[in-house]
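Example 3.2
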Amino acid sequence: MRILSSFFLLFCTSFYAHALRLPAVINSNMVLQRDMPVPIWGWGEAGAKVTVFFAGQKKETTAGKNGAWMVKLGKLKANASPSTLTVKGNEEIKLENILVGEVWICSGQSNMEWKVSQCANPKEEMARANHPKIRLFDVPGHTVHPLPQREGKGEWKVCSSQSVPGFSATGYYFGRRLHLSLGVPIGLIGSNWGGTRIEPWTTLDGFKSVPELSEQAKSVAAYTQETQVKGGSPSAIYNSMVHPLTPYALRGAIWYQGESNGAEGVTYYQKKHALVKGWRKAFQNPNLGFYWVQLCNWKKPGTTPGGGDGWAKLREAQTQALDLKHTGMAVIIDLADAHNPGDIHPKNKQDVGGRLARWALHQTYEMDALVPSGPLYTGHEIKGRKVHLSFKNVGQGLMVGKKEGLNPTQRVTGGTLKHFSIAGADKQWHWAEAKIVGDQVVLSSKAVKKPVAARYAFTMNPADANLYNMDGLPAGPFRTDHW
């Protein structure tokens, strides 16, 4: 009996190894990326001919010695009518209900993982989440591996009141905004793990691309199949939870992470470069849009003019990483619950997703008239006792604003700008009087005769920071010094 069981197991294993199969991410209900080559890949019997049929295209190839095969469909036009994709080899696989549109991966730690059911207005949002042209793919569980894995798990689901509760709230609200604005199908891929650092999400090639991270690169390059890795090991999460998705054709990625690297500054800037460059290479898209969330205000409001505490330098690193092309950053220092500032998971993910979507619509989809974010500091000029600050993304102008919950930002007529500070050569910081003058903010303080530097919202929780543009988007924190 044991011999028969062993024979049966060997037969099944051999059959599976030669059976025509596809990765989990290529399946019924998926959205394929429009306007770029689309890889379709899988495994089968070595040397077997494989043919893929879709949208009038026929692509042929031969499985390699290890059974792996891949074809690339030519550029596809957006199509909201369900279609069938057929793969023929020694067997035939038919995938149904396929759409063509825009595909994005949504990744990070718990604030990206936080589900629609856990965030603001869950009942109302779930009840009206029937968007059959939006499709959701969620990588299940939390897994690691020392080496890049080719096969993973997950399934595509049609967005509905039944499927959306367990999906990333930030990802869903981002995708919904794109769908309603672009009028094309949207595919969203979620791969998240709460409490994780950026390093385990980063590829070996990513580490190699940044000289300052050579030690991490050496460490990952030395991994073998037997290396014991954990959730904090460099590349370990990427290998298991992202690599099996590659090279699925994507337009871009949204990223909400940083809390677990919160004590860092310039090192996080380096790691962000490694993350973005590595993913762009892995997904074979050097122009992959990459938009991230700057960390929210958290804990007790900052009360010292110099600030510099908590996540101040981490947010600065997130801003500096915008020197990467095709990137953007959603500023959310105004979205923490005022009644519960100690909650590291702000419930208002509607605005988070919406602000990420503005970047994508403006930059990736070239809606130039749409202001992508709130004012971002670009430079300053000192004139006597005053500091004149300049910004980009001013839009129709600057204003004093107030944001409460899910309500739109309100302009505070006659309001006073807060959380600006200036210092002289003695490096002693003082709260500044701040006034909007055209598209600039002008600072002064009776305590500082010769100012040399300025800061804005440069603290863990700049709760009273209130500079916005007329679109209701908050200005990003900054400092002009390097002290």
